[in-house]
Amino acid sequence: MKTTMHTPIKLLVIISFLCSFSANSQWYETQGHARTNGISVEVARSQAMENALKKALLVSGASVSSVQQVVNGLLTQDEISIRASGSVNSIELVDEVHSNNLITVTIRVDIFPQEEKCFAVNFKKSLVLTRSHLIHREQANIGEIYGIDKAIMSKLSEQLTQHSTFTKTTSILNNKTEFSRLNNSLASDEIAQLTQSLSERTDSQYVMFSEITNTSFDTQATNSWLFWQQGIYPRNFAMSFYLYNGLNGELVWQENYQDSAPWTFNKRKKVDVDGSAFWQSDYGVMLNDMIDRVTKDIDENIMCELSRGKIIQVQGNQVTINLGRDHGLKIGDAFSLLHLTNFTNNSGKSYTGFNLSPYKVKITKLTRQTAIAVTPDGRLFGNIQIDDLAVRYEN
Question: If you average pLDDT over residues 323-327, what whole number do you get?
Fold first, then answer.
């Protein structure tokens, strides 16, 4: 007997005020199993759903203090209250199959992963920086600082490389991207495609875009600050940053920064934005302080994002993934394998999510950039393919 159900089930989740959660949820689809030997169908169904939910929570980086409480509530009422360290936004029971003494359920669960004390903090995420874009190019005329769009991202790359705890950073700064034009047109689908393309080309998990929105001068001189100098004016600087997930093109984080400092250079003089004189000036020091803030904010917002690697080779019971020693992996680390998938709900809205495969693998060999993992029991892979995903989980 096979029974198929499509019943969206809402959960009311009570979050501890000590916890903080990501604004971006993610759908996971997974299966759970239970035997009916000696127990009722209702109890077996509950156990199967508990099994499926645990798997989804495990690979999402979240956890629920009482999975059984969630499942039992789902079977008895449409809305329940639970205390969670990972927020389960909604669950859909997609399919239920009865075969002999085995119940198999398929669920689709929407999870907000935990940000504080998260398991993912142990691992570095690969991030690629792109060249920024001067929104108002005419504001850069004084000093001819047109190259600031490249120079400031170069400085940010240096800071992240030297001081970031949770990123492994590369940059592509010689050529501009189409991000600013697409962003101005609110072309979110095209931005997602651009992000995924850059992620694929650079073998990076995350892509950062940015826009410089203001380099104008204030109208009043700073004589009250530097009364012995004449004609020194405050110059503004404002910049917006956008961090995207390279796998699905979704926006992970964005922030705007702005400040000002005295422009101590002659207004008729061309300023070398790559030179030490610029970066040691009042204006350059202000920009460095801003870059420090950006570096810390990137770390805070990327630290709990999952370490997901792409499978780049499949052979027997062995996979090679594009994460390695530089990302914090160690021999013996365990992974679950996921299929990236798209689906449409009953109202016609499209979603990107993951199908959790039954395969678990452990790292046996490492290089700086890659890792080889095998199934501990020697089990051969069925439908695992290149470009499927490997996700860290706790051993």
Answer: 87
Domain ranges of the chain: 2-116, 124-302, 308-392
Spatial contact of 306 and 327, defined as CB atoms under 8 Å apart: no
Rounded CA separation 86/118 (Å) = 10
- Distance, in Å, from the CA atom of 377 to the CA atom of 328, rounded to the nearest integer, reads 25
Pair 40, 99: CB distance under 8 Å: no
What's the distance, Cα to Cα, between the start and end of the chain in Å? 36
Class of domain 2-116: alpha beta
Structure tokens at 101: 């003494």
- Per residue in 146-192, pLDDT (tens digit) is 999 999 999 999 999 998 888 999 999 999 999 999 999 999 999 99
Render the burial of 215-240: b for 16+ CB within 10 Å, e for the rest: bbeeeebbeeeeeeeeebbbbbbbbb
% of the chain at pLDDT higher than 70:
77
**Can you give the pTM of this predicted structure?**
0.66
Sign of the four-CA dihedral 256, 262, 264, 269: positive
Q: Which amino acid is at 244?
A: Y
- CATH number for the domain whose boundaries are 124-302: 3.40.50.10610
Selection from 169, 115, 141 nearest residue 305 by Cα: 115
**CB of 243 closer than 8 Å to CB of 251:** yes
Q: What is the CATH number of domain 308-392?
A: 2.40.10.410
Q: Specify the higher pLDDT residue, 231 or 256.
A: 256
Please give the residue that has the higher pLDDT: either 302 or 372.
Answer: 372
Nearest Cα residue to 183 out of 205, 155, 213, 156? 213
